[in-house]
Amino acid sequence: MKKVVFIFGLDGATWKLLDPWLKASHLPFLQTLAQRGFTATLKSTIPPLTSTAWTTFQTGVTPEKHHIFGFFHPSGRLYNSHDIHYPKFWQTAANYGKRSAIINMPLTYPIQPNNGCLVSSFLTPPGADFAYPTQLQLKLLKSHYQIDLPSNHHGFAPETPPSPSAKRTLHRQILSLIASREKAAITIAKQEAWDIFFVLFKATDLSQHFFWDAKETLAVYQRIDQAIAKILHAYKTAHPKTKVNILIISDHGFHPISKYDVALYPLLAKLGFLPQRPNWYLKFLRGLRKISKLKYTTKLTFLSQPQVFSYGLSWPDASPNTIAKLANTLAKVTYRGQKIFQKIKIVPPNSTTLLRILWLTNPTFAPNPDPLSGQLIYPKITSLKAHHYSDPRGILIAAGPQIQPKQKRQFLHLVDLAGNILSLLGIPAPTHSNGRLYPQLFKFPQRQLSSQRKTPAEITKPKSKPEDDALVTQRLRQLGYVD
Q: What DSSP string describes 291-317?
């Protein structure tokens, strides 16, 4: 009997919420899966951001290797599918004749051909092609498929406290997004006996950002619990001669919103790694930025100095000794008895990102990379209830005929999954993979398949349009990813 792998992504799902809700039997289907198989903490990437983490999941390589850090390329444009230079695991599977359905995977726009079908994610500009093949896109459009929430989020913005009416509307829209994803997934699941099936529910991430652990988020998890059960039932009914391995995963964890903002440029200046700038000068530049509508005036502020991001910095001219000194200094910085950074990582220099240091802040502190910030540490003002920039701990629930049941919670890395998914199908893990195989958790076939080299042909790569990037950037700003 044919064995297949179904992966359900719950963006930002965290054991902080899942554990008490599973214990209270609020999520009966996920509870059943956890009892049949095993659960694990899934260590994400640094930074624990959607674009970085899901790229690692797709490729089985670390961010230091695929060079996708955050949402924006060093040139200022948004990253897209053509920036990923390692094969995705479903492309590797296609070399062995395996068919896949991939739904709502980040960084799959512009769409590329797949040995099966593919639907891109919320990073797709409005009105652009979002599905392969074309017939699938026409079918989804006819059924009013929702790729994301409406762009205005009904009055939500990170700095603006929402009205009760806006909160109710947003919650209804998130539930509607789940229903749309469920409907599309059921249609595609019934279409054929896919070897690999992936669908991402972004609703968990959205609800946690705006509601955190409130009843609205529990309702979202419960609706997804029902949707997963319905999708699997539809597939098994249509294809009874298959045995399904099920993986429920998240790309990172989540935590309540930080108490303070930490302005990274003033911090580096105070530590002696940047020149001090008087407040009048910064105030002048902030006014200039407002008039000229520039987001950052980095070149005016710190000429030939490091460029700082929320997750790290690039400093091409710095010597290894300077980078090591900075890393050691940052690791010791405290505020009111708490360390600001929970992890500092020195990155080997590369010509793509020029990154030299990655960091993970303590959840109490939100990193602010604005070079024109005058204050060093100040109370965070936002309508968001939670975020994930300081929590790389995702979730994994696995069950199925090739899954080894375990009572104790396991520990894996997100980078491990691509190789293990392929190995479940009898496909050798790619040599470029950074992940580790877990034969003690997964029952791999003894015989491996031979490559058939059925990779789809490349299509013409459309250029990224600034106006498209602006529309997607607005979505990111409403979630607090962009200042």
A: HHT-S--HHHHSTTS-EEETTEEE-TT
What ranges do the domains of the chain cover?
2-256+388-478, 260-381
Do 81 and 112 meet the contact criterion of CB atoms below 8 Å apart?
yes
Q: Give residue 391's identity as a one-letter amino acid code.
A: D
Single-letter residue type at 106: P
* Residue 329, Cβ density class (10 Å: 0-12 exposed, 13-18 middle, ≥19 buried): middle
How far is Cα 85 from Cα 91, in angstroms, rounded to an integer? 12
Supply the mean pLDDT for the chain. 88
The superfamily (CATH) of domain 2-256+388-478 is Alkaline Phosphatase, subunit A (3.40.720.10)
The fraction of the chain above a pLDDT of 90, given in percent, is 70
The residue count of the chain comes to 483
| pLDDT of 59 above 90 | yes
Q: Which long-range contacts (CB under 8 A, 24 or more apart) does 268-276 make?
A: 268/306, 268/308, 268/326, 270/376, 271/326, 271/329, 271/330, 271/333, 273/306, 273/322, 273/326, 273/329, 274/302, 274/305, 274/306, 275/302, 275/305
The neighbour count for residue 219, using CB atoms within 10 Å, is: 17
Task: State which H helix or E strand residue 187 sits in.
Answer: helix 164-191
Summarize the confidence of residues 443-456 as an average pLDDT.
73
Task: Name the E strands within 207-310.
Answer: 242-249, 255-256, 260-263, 307-309
Residue 366, token pair as written in the block = 């939100």
Residues 460, 457: Cα–Cα separation, whole Å? 10
